[in-house]
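Weekly sync, protein design subgroup
Attendees: M.S., D.O., the rotation student, P.L. (late)

Item 1: inverse folding check
M.S. brought a backbone from last month's batch and wanted to see whether the design step gives back something sensible before we order anything. D.O. pointed out we never logged the input encoding, so this time it goes straight into the notes. Structure tokens as presented (277 positions):
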């Protein structure tokens, strides 16, 4: 189900309850070890420069925040769920702290951090623009926002599911119903991103997430159809400098991210706040 407006407060409350109580989802996050977090940590370190004060949103089990602190940054790692952060506090130290807080109402003053970053967070919020507004609010002039995660509007996502369906792997389908629907969704996603590129205002597309206490994978619990095209327009509108849009782990992935970043399967958006507004 798609909706070009943001879902209301009731969905926020249901998502808070789900992420605050699901042991199954916690088990999924607990499997996110240092190897899993390494591409994200590498992205932050690559674009950090001399910036040292870091706020991480939606940090799950806190592993990435700890890795960033180990690299010499001063980090506050946060998540909406006290359940997810339950064990993270054991690694807290002067340059590393953790806080349970809502990304729509961050308990930090304006212009508090050099870097505000997240990995696989923004697609799980029911109002992407409001979440980005908060990230921008607490970023210092000259500071950077870094957002990493899946590009859920990428045509490569339904195309992959179409290939899986042709190979008889229908249990892996989250976004499509089979080959014919996969080709339809592939064409649709190409058109959606092309339309977003022409707009002067971002158009954040939201959906009804599947909030079940089971591991369903494929970001079926996502509420925002995250895409770098939205974030590019959002930051340009605010006068920010957009430095990067996408990344890839393999040689083929890096080529796609370089040639067609708005269509690449994985987004790695880096934007710098202007010194003067």
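Designed sequence read out in the meeting:
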């Amino acid at each position: 189900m798609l909706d070009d407006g943001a879902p209301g407060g009731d969905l926020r409350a249901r998502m808070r309850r789900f992420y605050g109580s699901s042991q199954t989802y916690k088990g999924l996050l607990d499997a996110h070890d240092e190897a899993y977090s390494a591409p994200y940590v590498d992205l932050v370190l690559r674009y950090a420069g001399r910036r040292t004060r870091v706020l991480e949103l939606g940090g799950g089990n806190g592993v990435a925040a700890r890795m960033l602190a180990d690299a010499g940054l001063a980090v506050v790692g946060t998540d909406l769920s006290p359940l997810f952060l339950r064990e993270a506090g054991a690694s807290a130290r002067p340059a590393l702290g953790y806080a349970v807080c809502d990304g729509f109402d961050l308990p930090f003053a304006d212009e508090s951090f050099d870097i505000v970053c997240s990995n696989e967070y923004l697609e799980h919020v029911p109002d992407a623009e409001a979440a980005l507004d908060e990230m921008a609010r607490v970023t210092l002039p000259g500071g950077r926002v870094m957002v990493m995660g899946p590009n859920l509007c990428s045509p490569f996502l339904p195309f992959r599911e179409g290939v899986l369906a042709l190979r008889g792997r229908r249990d892996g389908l989250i976004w499509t119903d089979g080959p014919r629907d996969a080709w339809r969704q592939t064409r649709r996603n190409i058109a959606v991103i092309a339309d977003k590129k022409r707009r002067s205002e971002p158009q954040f597309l939201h959906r009804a997430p599947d909030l079940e206490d089971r591991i369903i994978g494929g970001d079926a619990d996502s509420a925002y159809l995250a895409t770098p095209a939205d974030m590019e327009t959002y930051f340009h509108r605010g006068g920010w400098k957009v430095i990067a849009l996408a990344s890839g782990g393999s040689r083929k992935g890096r080529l796609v991210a370089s040639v067609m970043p708005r269509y690449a399967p994985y987004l790695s958006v880096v934007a710098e706040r202007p010194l003067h507004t």
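Discussion: Strands lie at 2-3, 53-57, 74-79, 96-100, 113-119, 139-150, 206-207, 241-246, 266-272. Confidence is low (pLDDT under 50) at residues 1-5.
Action: P.L. to compare against the previous round before Friday.
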